[in-house]
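Form 7-S
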Amino acid sequence: MAFTQTTEPTTWPPSSGSPDTGEVQDENLIGAFDLVVNDGRRRTIVENKTSARKYGEDQIRWDIQPTGYQFAAKQMGLGDVGVQYQVVTKTRTPALQVIDLERSAEDQEEFLRVAIGVMRAVDAGVFVPVRSWACRGCPYAHVCRPSKPEAVTTVQGCSWGRRPGLARFPLALHLPE
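Output:
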């Protein structure tokens, strides 16, 4: 017997205050969990993923999404939840990778700094496109390429950079009026 419950996406505040300044935030994030499993002991948020290959250690360790899920669950009153990724590889012989993820209080502080920083940037009109395979089906892809910048190079002729003797040539970009 299977039980399925679908709910509307929940809006939740990212924080009552900034972790750096304590400033009260009035922004909201909206999201949805793929699945929440309650085994009687602890709830686990399950995220279904597909990938060309298995997730590596760095991808697992530095992914901010599970931290956001844990934070959202606490804000929603679900308590301390686990997060599990179920990754199906899109290969000739598909494989299922099940990853139980743990995040610390430091990870949650980092999540808040990133989320609040991004929201502040959006409020300030800053938009930095992140191009990926997802752009193909994105209804906002046109926003990423509003106009083509005109490139103007200037050569400084000096040796500066990370390695001695490495000539660096700064690139100045000017958007057409």
